[in-house]
Amino acid sequence: MGGMEERTLKSPSHCTGTEQDYDVRQWDTREGCEVRQILDRVADKWSLLAIAHLERQTLRFSELRRRIEGISQRMLTVTLRQLERDGLVTRTVHPVVPPRVEYTLTPLGATLHATIQALVDWTEDHQEEIAAARASYDSRQDDLAALS
Amino acid sequence: MGGMEERTLKSPSHCTGTEQDYDVRQWDTREGCEVRQILDRVADKWSLLAIAHLERQTLRFSELRRRIEGISQRMLTVTLRQLERDGLVTRTVHPVVPPRVEYTLTPLGATLHATIQALVDWTEDHQEEIAAARASYDSRQDDLAALS
DNA sequence: CGGTATCCGTTCTGATACTG
DNA sequence: CAGTATCAGAACGGATACCG
């Protein structure tokens, strides 16, 4: 999703500008819109998983890596750094050898967890409907293609 | 995010496989996991916006395009096709000239709207905290860099 | 109007190698 | 252990041109 090189904090507030007549207007695409930017981060695949796994427990880097199956070391590092920067995760380095680095949700991160869980729950609850819809759509497409 | 060329429906169910001892296990990264795949789609930037704008109203292609500022014609088409395939959006073609194509949320899509809105609301509610966290993190980084 | 097809630069991501 | 650095391939996404 969005890059991470922007450090433009031009319009920190609600992106009100050219008014439109819908309640979705606060979070559309305008340049410098904070909400959209944060949403991109928060709706990110790996971020979602990391936050979910950190619920109510502190985990080490390698523990997280094992739990989030399929994530590369690089992506886990990048994701955790972003979450740390956003104040959603705390990173604690214990000055021992070998190094021990622990990650925890901040209170802010904890509040996000519930919301994320709702999205995950929705997905679980409706996965069969979606799979069915896809199968149906695909077979219709196949039928159309067969007419050629 | 995820590509759209996979039509593998190998494990349509809950991704239970190599068991792990956490409640997040149902939606991790294993190959063929439906939940993760759907989540990627649903958490997509443009999908979110499209669904949000379609709440309680039918919109034409061009209307959607105007409302979702910054989306290209191609991305809108791609997004709407995905949502249609997933059974979240209905596409109705009126056989008139010039063509008139209308999009509506399906009942399934409507149930997703509430969840998405919760995520958006969270983002709006906490955007200042996040902006502050970022600023704080960045200045700390700058301080560190200054020591070189 | 509502697309589709194509080209192409940008971003993302995984693999690999190396380090304190 | 917990990274960082680098590189290459894949995916994303915009611009453009064309069509029913």
From TrEMBL, chains A, B:
Domain HTH hxlR-type intervals:
33-131
- Keyword DNA-binding, does the record have it? yes
Q: Drop me one GO molecular function for this one.
A: DNA binding
Instruction: Provide the organism lineage as a comma list.
Output: Bacteria, Bacillati, Actinomycetota, Actinomycetes, Kitasatosporales
Q: Which Gene3D superfamilies match?
A: Winged helix-like DNA-binding domain superfamily/Winged helix DNA-binding domain (1.10.10.10)
One Pfam family for this entry, by name?
HxlR
**PANTHER family given for it?**
TRANSCRIPTIONAL REGULATOR, MARR FAMILY, TRANSCRIPTIONAL REGULATORY PROTEIN
Q: Which UniProt keywords apply?
A: DNA-binding, Transcription, Transcription regulation
* Name of the protein this chain belongs to: Transcriptional regulator
Species of the source: Streptomyces termitum
Q: Which InterPro entries match?
A: HTH_HxlR (IPR002577), WH-like_DNA-bd_sf (IPR036388), WH_DNA-bd_sf (IPR036390)
